[in-house]
UniProtKB/TrEMBL annotation:
SUPFAM superfamilies: GHMP Kinase, C-terminal domain (SSF55060), Ribosomal protein S5 domain 2-like (SSF54211). Residues 184-312 form the Mvd1 C-terminal domain. GO terms for molecular function: ATP binding; diphosphomevalonate decarboxylase activity. Belongs to the diphosphomevalonate decarboxylase family. GO terms for cellular component: cytosol. Keywords: ATP-binding, Lipid biosynthesis, Lipid metabolism, Lyase, Nucleotide-binding. It comes from Pseudomonas poae. Its EC number is 4.1.1.33. GO terms for biological process: isopentenyl diphosphate biosynthetic process, mevalonate pathway. This is diphosphomevalonate decarboxylase. It comes from the Bacteria. Signal peptide: none annotated.
Amino acid sequence: MNEKISVTAPSNFALIKYWGMSDRHQALPNNPSLSMTLSHCLSHCTVEALPTAQADEILWKSPTGRLAPATGDMLNGIEQHLARLRRQLGGPTHVRIATSNNFPTGAGIASSASGFAAVALGFARLSGRTLDDPHASLWARLSGSGSAARSVLGGFVQWPADATDLAGPARRIATAAHWPLADLIAVVDSAPKHVSSREGHRRANTSPHYATRLSLLPERLAKVRQAIARRDFSALAEAVEQEAIELHMIAMTSTPATFYWLPGTLQVLERVRQLRCDGLNVCATVDAGPNVHVLCESDQRSTVFAQLRGLSQVQEWIIDAVGDGPRRLDQHLF
C-alpha cells in the first residue's frame, strides 16, 4: 500500500496587506505584508504517490463530503502548482491528491492561501521534507498565491521577512501564545467573489493613489510590528483599520474599479466602530472580499460577539483565533 500523507494548513488574514505584484508569474509582491494565522479555518490535503499512473489524480471534497474530480480553476491551479513543486523538490512523478476546506471557498477568507499551502506541505512531506522546513513558504508561493507563503507558519507572520528581498521567505515575528487574539469572521456573502485576488493585484497599480500607498506602508508596517510586540491593542486597531480602508480605496479607484464591499460589510464595520467608542478593544479588517474579520482580545470575545451576533446582514459567524500553524494528520480524505 502506498503511503498517504495528510496535512492541514490554516487560513490567515492580513493586518498589513499586499496589493499589487512586482512579478505576477512568481507571485512577488510590491510590499511586505503581515498576517495572523488562524486556528480553525483549515484546508485539509491528502496525497499519495501513484507509481504506475500516467497522470495526476486531483480530487476535491465538497462541504457535503462528496469526493469528486477537481475542475476549472481549482484543477488548473493545483496542476500548475504540482508541476512547479516537482521542479523544486523532485518527488513522485504522479500523485493522487485531494483537498477540502471547512470554511467558505473563494469568498475572500484566504481559502487559496490555506489550500495551496496544504498542497505544498503535503507534497513536500511525501518528497521527504518536513513541515517546518525553512523553504516551506517559498514552495507555497510557487502556487501563485502569495498569501499561501504566510499560511505555512503559525502566529503572526511577515512575508517577505526582509523588505529588501521580495523573493525571500516568510518569518514568524510572534507566536500565537504571545498574544492570543480572537477573530470573529462575519460572513456577509459566502459565494465566490466576482473579481479574483489575482485580477485585483493586476489592476492595483492603475489607481492614481497606488504610489502614495506604497510610500506609506513601511511606517505602518513598523507600527503594527511594534503593536504586536507590546500587545498594544489601541495602536494595532488604528493601523489595521486604516490599512483596510486604504486597500479597498485602491481597489475602488483602479481601472476597472473593483468593489468588494457589500451593505453587510458596512453594517459590521459601523457596529465595530461603535463598540470601540463604547470602550471595547475591538477592530475590524477586510481582505479582498466582502467578509469582515473582527479582531479582539480573547477575554472580550464573548462580550464582543454578544453585541454583533444580531446584525441582520451577516449570514454566518465563524469564531476563530490566532493559531499555531500547519500540522500532520492521521485522518485521510481517501
